Amino acid sequence: MSLDISLLLDLVGVFFFAVSGSLLAARKGFDLIGSVLLGSMAGLGGGVVRDVILNQGPPAAFSNPIYLVPALVASALVYFTLKNVRRSGRLLLMFDAGGLALFCVTGTLKALDAGMNPGAGILLGVTTAVGGGILRDITANEVPSVFDPKDLYAIPAFIGAALASGLWQLGWLNLFTGGAAAAVVFLLRILSLRYGWHAPLAARSWTPRKAGRG
Amino acid sequence: MSLDISLLLDLVGVFFFAVSGSLLAARKGFDLIGSVLLGSMAGLGGGVVRDVILNQGPPAAFSNPIYLVPALVASALVYFTLKNVRRSGRLLLMFDAGGLALFCVTGTLKALDAGMNPGAGILLGVTTAVGGGILRDITANEVPSVFDPKDLYAIPAFIGAALASGLWQLGWLNLFTGGAAAAVVFLLRILSLRYGWHAPLAARSWTPRKAGRG
Amino acid sequence: MSLDISLLLDLVGVFFFAVSGSLLAARKGFDLIGSVLLGSMAGLGGGVVRDVILNQGPPAAFSNPIYLVPALVASALVYFTLKNVRRSGRLLLMFDAGGLALFCVTGTLKALDAGMNPGAGILLGVTTAVGGGILRDITANEVPSVFDPKDLYAIPAFIGAALASGLWQLGWLNLFTGGAAAAVVFLLRILSLRYGWHAPLAARSWTPRKAGRG
To answer: Per its UniProt entry, which superkingdom is the organism in (chains A, B, C) (predicted)?
Structure first.
């Protein structure tokens, strides 16, 4: 996949996550500056964590100013077009899913291009994909949505990162195959939300809280 | 601006933010060690994030032990002199504003000295200035004060970073002009608190929660 | 201390902290994937922060896949063996104490091996030891246990890091002395929990909240 196409997909991913951050800022009653900040944290956070871990110079988000554009556009868009803040939850999940789908592919690709082995590439791809959302939710003082036990979040990202790593090793990674991998991730995430697909709880013995002392 | 003066301003900024962290620790009922930890996180966190992003060796706070002194002094000061914990909110905001004012100037300067371009310098200056407070509040499980929609926080920091970047490019940055830029930031922040200056909300359509279902 | 032994102690520390993360995931009602994520964050977070600060290439947790094994084993163990989620609090504290004890020693050692001075080594050892637990608790939206004023947490870690640094400088650090330092830390932490040893509060003037307005 050429660098230009990779950058383009990355910027679209930044935009999707930035919209999710700006929507959360709107829901929490933050102001427009808080919207830009939370959108930037969601959109750029995962990539900054990845680049800090790769340890090859300053993160792209700081050395290349174009990364700020999608974050600013996202805040403006939410400011001018959001009709109903209280019903924006589903919208937030959609944009978050879009960012997740693109970042697990581009994050893996960046790690592999930086010389990491395939396993570490998958790990960094997943970190990129879930990192921005975790930073967004922690900063807004919410339990990160990756921990919501009612649907799948990290598993689709892992599948997407593994697909991207496999395609890259075979030399088959291009805009179409990369986009298809991202589409699979997006679809899995959305279907898990729609049909309540979920993983088992962390403890097999866990039972829901009953009335009385607990 | 000579390195000594820059270090001095930086240490004063660390002290201001460390006091804000120690005051928050006192308000939350943490112990003296928690006060040192939260003060260090507030005072050193923004600079550590900046230095990690600059990626030029270990952060100053870890390689230069003098950075721990203001954090320890701040905790001791709060321990011995704070009279009324519950009324310390205004004091916290004052010291936080002082740290914000100094860090947006010294953070920008450090980034420019490290070879970043002016735009990235401003971005890193703002990151340095707001980073410590965000880490402090996240760690104490509070919504970061940068997101408080009732006053201005990031905008004064941005103005200060832009002023510092401009002065640096013109070769006019010295103790007086740098101090003046910091004073402007401090004043803007305090006036916004005093007169309720604030930015528009993240969503134009947002209306306050009314009685009944929301 | 040879690299193999150091790696072994480090992996045991990762396992202990990962169990604490998986137990917290179980208590919060997260799913098995959330358990792996929170366990990894607790087990690997402190070391990743240390390695990012040391700035000598990608963190070990990302370049050496063996670091994922204890995190996966911990989640599986909690999933299959945990009998009573609601009473797992004490278990969590035990495993957390084990991780703390090992990480303040191995973290200091890694920092000294990377060429940091003894003071910075102690600082990074404490950061490694408390970092994973702070990340775990912040991510799960809890006040980090390092701030609990009812017992000692950072002080045992500091003592362990200082012991490790002293032993290293004297050339006396081996599996036995390192293990003994870790045992001292573990014992101090457990005794502080058992007997309520604690540090003074952050503000001398603080008094518990009384009835009426506060």
So the answer is: Bacteria
